[in-house]
Amino acid sequence: MSFTLFRNPFPSFIEHYDEVSSTNDIAFEILFEKGKKANGGIIVAENQSNGRGRIGRKWVSKMGDSLLLSLIFIPPENYFKEFIPLCAGLSVIRSIKKYREIDAKLKWPNDIVFDGKKLGGILVESKTMGTTPSGFVIGIGLNVKGKKDDFSLELRNKVSTIEEISKRECDKNELLKFLIKELKEIYNFSFSDKMLFMVELKREFIHRKGDRIKINLGNEILEGNFVEINDEGRMVINSKKGKRVIIHGEVESL
């Protein structure tokens, strides 16, 4: 009998809100209230008043235009935690492809892109009780409806939407059905066959060997040539100081 990270049914529950501060905030409230029973639960909102991105950025969305959700995940102790955002990313691009035949790709570690424009992002957060993480909350934001011109001048040349790319009207609830199916399958796949999962995942990154890369590590900016995404999901680059393995960072192409 194969092991599954999530019990049936999946999601274990799903809650919809018109507006929240952040779907991750609501998910943590439920996680602390329900404990392990919260595993596999999903929070969906039409809008976020304080949506978060990585490195303290704000996630900007118009009411009803984005698919905004958080998944509660309590992995077993032997689950490789670096896979958490990567599984979410792979699930997202597969669901977009099946829903609208858009060949979106991953920009390491957590951006969803198409033709150089950002379609969405993933924010994984955890909080501890004592010294042990109580669980993880995986926030996903996708630009579904509208056009890039609906965004601010600062963003409109950097982003796009699924409707704009596909030139077809989109239903967020239909896309959510595809995404829920992929989330369950991909997370279980990553646990049952780590090596094959990595083979599948590596095909979906935009980065190619030799690409010039600039990475913001928070306390330093590192430049070099992309080598690979290794079997632990980390980025490897050749810099002036030699080969570096990057666990966390914000990647820009030079």
Task: List strands and helices in order, with pairings.
Blueprint: E1 14-20, H1 23-34, E2 42-48, E3 66-73, H2 83-100, E4 105-107, E5 111-114, E6 117-129, E7 132-143, H3 162-166, H4 172-192, H5 194-202, E8 212-216, E9 221-229, E10 235-239, E11 242-246, E12 250-253
Parallel strand pairs: 1-2
Antiparallel strand pairs: 2-3, 3-7, 4-5, 5-6, 6-7, 8-9, 8-12, 9-10, 10-11
Keywords:
BirA Bifunctional Protein, domain 2, five-stranded antiparallel sheet, SH3 type barrels, 2 domains, globular, 32% strand, alpha+beta, 26% helix, 254 residues
Q: What is the CATH T-level topology of the largest domain? A: BirA Bifunctional Protein, domain 2
The strand count comes to 12
Structural class: alpha+beta
Q: Secondary-structure element order, as H and E?
A: EHEEHEEEEHHHEEEEE
Mean pLDDT: 91
